[in-house]
Amino acid sequence: MSLLNQLFNRGVFGAKCKTSLTLGISRMKLLQNKRELQLQQMRKEIAQFLQAGQEPIARIRVEHVIREQNICAAYAVLELFCEFLLARVPILESQKECPTEMREAVASIIFAAPRCSDLPDLLQIKNLFSAKYGKEFVLAVSELRPDSGVNRTIIEKLSVSAPSSEARLKVLKEIAQEHNLNWDSSNTESELSKKHEDLLGGSKEICGWASFPPVPIKQGYPQSSPSNGAHPITPTKTEQGSQRLQAPNPPSSMPLLSNNKIEQSVKSSNVVPVSDFKRGTPSQSSDVLERARAAIASAERASAAARTAAELVNVKFGSWKLEEGKSS
């Protein structure tokens, strides 16, 4: 019973393979004639663009011409492979494994089937080969594994990569020569030879600022040395400088400190100006650095004024305690 199924399946494979190959050959011939007419019209339009001085449009259109030429060349090779297999269908039908002399033709058709949407017959042939030789054989060909046997011309002509600058310039010169145009290709050559800047990583000017070292800023605050002999307040950490200094509330009989006294005490205190920034920074970043300096300087002045005010309060409060002790 299995022998009958094998013979029946073998006959079905041969008949389907012959039908698909025959239809594929005839369809490829029709498509080649159609594409050749389209190519002639496209080349004529490019010649008109070159004559009118619209070279940028011609440089774009020539890519379509090259792609169509590659597809026509691939169809010509595939047509030869299909005719080769059509004449040897009985050999394919009789052997379980793919013959070595037919491996290139079989692998090339399997590789080109999903890349040639105009040829649905190739997909049917691919399905027949997949059912006969297994999915692993088809997967190895589709992934272009070593010893897959795919024709090199088919791989190059069906590639989706953009054509090179040399290929575009060569086709433009051929079109100009074909239509007897006195076209000066110097502008196109210089434009195609340009190396355009890749802006995916950002502008070079912006990326250059990342190479500058960060501006060091002192975390500690300078100590103030009051002239009245009181013990100075020395912050040990940066976090302590951000906290508010809590001083005892003076009694209502104690005179309040005027703003002039606080300003004089701030001027008398030895506040070290911010001078830890590195000199020689670029002129482009001067605005940002000036703002940073102003912000840090204002913060230091505010903290120094707060420390001085607290010291004066402590001194006044201490003297008030001494007077109260003497009176008692």
Radius of gyration from the alpha-carbon trace, in angstroms: 43 Å
| Major sheet size, sense and barrel closure | none
H and E string = HHHHHHHHHHHHH
Mean pLDDT: 76
Class by alpha and beta content: mainly alpha
| Cα distance spanning the termini | 128 Å
- Contiguous helical run count: 13
Which ranges are low-confidence, i.e. pLDDT below 50, for 5 or more consecutive residues?
Answer: 1-5, 205-212, 216-259, 265-281
**Helical residues, percent:** 55-70%
- Apparent shape: elongated
Characterization of the model:
It is a single chain. By secondary structure, this protein is mainly α. The protein has helices at 2-51, 55-86, 89-94, 103-112, 120-133, 135-142, 152-157, 165-178, 186-192, 204-209, 238-242, 259-268, 286-327. Helix 1 (2-51) runs antiparallel to helix 2, helix 1 (2-51) runs antiparallel to helix 5 and helix 4 packs across helix 5. It starts with a helix and ends with a helix. Residues 1-5, 205-212, 216-259 and 265-281 have low confidence and may be disordered.
Write out key terms for the chains shown.
13 helices; about 325 residues; disordered N terminus
Q: Which helices and strands appear, and what pairs or packs with what?
A:
Elements: H1 2-51, H2 55-86, H3 89-94, H4 103-112, H5 120-133, H6 135-142, H7 152-157, H8 165-178, H9 186-192, H10 204-209, H11 238-242, H12 259-268, H13 286-327
Helix pairs in contact: 1-2, 1-5, 2-4, 2-8, 4-5, 5-6, 12-13
